[in-house]
Amino acid sequence: MWPKTTCHRLFHLMLCLSSVLFLASCAGTKTTADGNAPGESLLLEDMGNGVCHQGSSRLMWQIQKSQKFSTWDEANEYANSLQLGGFDDWRLPTKEETLFLSELLLLNNGNCPITFKRAHWVNSKDKGTAGFWEDYPLCGGSEFLWVEGKKGSVRAVRP
Question: Which end of the chain, C or N, has fewer beta carbons within 10 A?
Answer without folding.
Answer: N
